[in-house]
Design brief:
Helix content is 12%, strand content 35%. It has four helices and 35 strands. Pfam families: Kelch_1 (PF01344), Kelch_KLHDC2_KLHL20_DRC7 (PF24681).
Length: 528
């Protein structure tokens, strides 16, 4: 029996190596009850995420090309991915809660994973290069030194049959019958694609902000860093600002604004400075404005707006000026609008909207005009208007099919505008598309979850990621809109439910979500 097991193991090793381009292996060495601990920065995980099993932790590492090691925490189900592990024998500390693993060979993004007792991970991967069938070994090829079958003893024949059965099971299905090669290969490729999607790490936590924030604002600086300003914590309005560095995943404090403000606007000007305008602070609406200089990390005051306002919008025009419009004034919604001139630091009034509104959306179109839609003024609005910078006037355009406020608006790559969710006394899951060429709205299907005070971010592939929000509950659910099919699909949940947060698409294509509230105001941030 011992010799038979050795023989079968030997056959397995031969077959595993012989299938060549049809099988490639990935192995992760297991170090139980151990965790990485070292001063080298490469021992800091570049991704943390929560998953149910160590198998998913392995898959997460194999799906990320820079991952060289992983640690799985049994008690918290937290998986840490590492880019490199130097001097691992000197960097391990005992921890009964942790299993650590190193990638020691092979490829990534496997179509299936086998979790073996020794905690090694073996993956099969399909190579879809054209095969030269005549060079493949026959399915039941005998070892060259094997004696003729009629000379073998019955016991040897039985052993050979067992070995051949094992070899038959290990051979890739493409080698069974040539006429079935293409359908089987397609099935394996489909399985590989499905498993790759499952193995992808969708949401990962990143550094926490130094302050709890909701009703704050966010923008991407020209240097790729992310600026977050103001908002409120559990007790008061904030004037603090902080910067997120995507390269390190950390936040650092930067200069404080001159005024405490929430529900304000941020606009990145052509010269790289950031304009913060109006908002609410110290129990009154603001008409003040200030400029942030990324080079010095300081704020300086600039000209005051002509009117106080919060829950307004700010849109950068093609001529570099900033259009600020509507919002909530001293006691009611306003319809006035004004322009900021960066070269003079002054504001001038421009045409007023036909309808006063706040908690609406504004989108700069490809033709340079600005579309505003929805909102409230005591009544919930479905109306929409267009601002023409060349004329300085507003004209009405087609109305949405549903009145809504606290919704989102996203300009798609085809120039249309996607409106999602919001509320009108009822939480909405409906979505609509505005066509600038026709001035009309059409349905964009329904989201899987009704939500308002959520975010919507356009991705590099043209899809739109909708995140979190509220609907009587705080939501961690997310979903994707595909403009090519006009459909919605559910995507993995955030780690933390949040409403009234902010989101921005970074230069590397990931989406940063920061702060918000889920009953408590949050400092946490996540990456998609």
């Amino acid at each position: 029996m011992a010799s038979r097991r050795i023989c079968l193991w030997f056959i397995f090793m031969i077959i595993t190596q012989s299938v060549g381009e049809d099988m490639r292996t990935v192995r992760m060495s297991s170090m139980r009850n151990s965790k990485f601990q070292c001063a080298n920065t490469t021992c800091v995980p570049f991704i943390n995420f929560v998953t149910r099993t160590i198998l998913n932790c392995q898959a997460g590492c194999l799906a990320v090309i820079q991952c060289a090691a992983a640690s799985f925490h049994r008690s918290t189900s937290n998986c840490e991915l590492f880019a490199d592990m130097l001097n691992q024998n000197r960097n391990m500390l005992f921890d009964a809660d942790i299993i650590s693993m190193n990638v020691i060979a092979g490829t990534r993004s496997p179509p299936d994973l086998v979790h073996e007792p020794n905690a090694f991970c073996i993956a099969k991967s399909v190579d879809n290069r054209p095969r030269q069938h005549q060079h493949q070994p026959p399915q039941h090829q005998q070892p060259q030194q094997q004696p003729p079958q009629h000379q073998q003893q019955p016991q040897q024949q039985h052993q050979q049959q067992q070995e051949l059965q094992l070899q038959h099971q290990l051979q890739p299905p493409q080698q069974h019958q040539r006429q079935h090669q293409q359908p089987q290969q397609q099935q394996e490729l489909q399985l590989q694609h499905q498993q790759q999607q499952q193995c992808q790490v969708r949401w990962t936590t990143t550094g926490n902000m130094s302050a709890m924030r909701q009703y704050h604002r966010i923008c991407i600086l020209s240097n790729g860093k992310v600026l977050v300003t103001g908002g409120q914590n559990d007790a008061s309005v904030l004037n603090s600002s902080e910067l997120y560095n995507p390269a390190t995943g950390t936040w650092t404090n930067t200069g404080n604004m001159k005024d405490y403000r929430e529900k304000h606007t941020l606009s990145v000007l052509a010269n790289g400075t950031v304009l913060a305008a109006a908002g609410f602070g110290n129990n009154l609406e603001l008409n003040t404005a200030e400029l942030y200089n990324p080079s010095t990390g300081t704020w300086t005051t600039t000209g005051n707006l002509t009117s106080v306002r919060n829950e307004h919008t700010a849109s950068i025009l093609a001529n570099g000026k900033v259009l600020v419009a509507a919002g909530y004034g001293l006691n009611s919604a306003v319809n006035t609008a004004e322009l900021y001139n960066p070269s003079t630091g002054t504001w001038t009034a421009t045409g007023s909207m036909s309808v006063a509104r706040y908690s609406y959306t504004a989108s700069t179109l490809a033709n340079g005009k600005v579309l505003v839609a929805g909102g409230s003024n005591g009544n919930n609005l479905n109306s929409a208007e267009l601002y023409d910078p060349s004329a300085g006037t507003w004209t009405t355009t087609g109305s949405m099919s549903v009145a809504r406020y606290y919704h989102t608006a996203t300009v798609l790559t085809n120039g249309k505008v996607l409106i999602t969710g919001g509320s009108n006394g009822t939480y909405l899951n409906s979505a609509e598309l505005y066509d600038p060429s026709a001035g009309t709205w059409t349905t964009a299907g329904n989201m899987n979850v009704a939500r308002y005070l959520h975010t919507a971010s356009i991705l590099a592939n043209g899809k739109v990621l909708v995140v979190g929000g509220c609907n009587g509950n705080y939501l961690n659910s997310t979903e994707l809109y595909d403009p090519s099919t006009n459909t919605w699909t559910i995507t993995p949940n955030m780690n933390i439910a949040r409403c009234n947060h902010v989101a921005s698409t970074l230069a590397n294509g990931t989406v940063l979500v920061a702060g918000g509230s889920n009953g408590a105001v949050l400092t946490s941030t996540e990456l998609y």
